[in-house]
Amino acid sequence: MLTTLLLVGLGAFTWTFLEYVIHRFRGHKKNGNGPVRKEHLQHHAKANYFVQLYKKIPIAIAVLVMSAIMVGALAGLINGLAFAFGLAGMYFIYELTHRAFHVREPFIRYGLKMRKHHFYHHFGNPKNNHGVTTALWDRIFKTYQTVEQVAVPPKMVMQWLLNEEHSVKSKYNQHFRLR
């Protein structure tokens, strides 16, 4: 039972690494033109564009099946499924978190910190801050940039950031500003 729980955790942790690698090396691949890069560039160009689920689900299922088979071959079927469950669970958390960054106000300090991390990547320097759920891999691979304040282009501004006068809400002034 402990091994199974550890493999669920390892699956979740593995997703954070895959999130970083896919984002950095597929989404921002220099001179790349594959579907991941194409969709990711759309996400950077349009304020609230996200890849449609019908494009993501088949890939996610294939990765989960392959990971369950590979880990299952090494550690048994139940443990392979546990690893895949952790991977899928963290991927689901990533999807919810990423969308929330763009469309909802943060309600915990970590959410605000990671929004600054993520939006610096969008609006400051796309070569830095690739992580969405964690900055761990950015720190390890030296792509982490400390962010005091993010300059947001008005045409890309997140609606949750603005007050009725279409300026940055006072509680976010030290973290975000309009360019």
| Radius of gyration, CA atoms, in whole angstroms | 18 Å
What is the ordering of alpha helices and beta strands?
HHHHHHEE
Mean pLDDT across all residues, rounded? Answer: 94
Strand residues, percent: under 5%
Distance between the termini: 53 Å
| Silhouette | elongated
Order the strands across the largest sheet as they lie in space.
1-2
Helix fraction, binned, reads: 55-70%
* Total number of domains: 1
Pick out the low-confidence regions: none
The largest pleated sheet is described as: 2 strands, parallel
> Counting H and I runs of at least 4 residues, what is the number of helices?
6
Number of E-type strands = 2
Brief overview:
By secondary structure, this protein is mainly alpha-helical. It has helices at residues 2-27, 35-45, 53-75, 77-103, 109-123, 136-140; strands at 150-152, 176-178. The protein has a two-stranded parallel sheet.
Describe the structure in your own words.
With 179 residues, the protein is mostly helical. The chain has one domain. Helices cover 60% and strands 3% of the residues. The chain has 6 helices and 2 strands, in the order H-H-H-H-H-H-E-E. A two-stranded parallel sheet has the order 1-2. Helix 1 packs across helix 4 and helix 3 packs antiparallel against helix 4 (77-103). The longest helix has 27 residues, at 77-103. It is elongated and about 60 Å long.
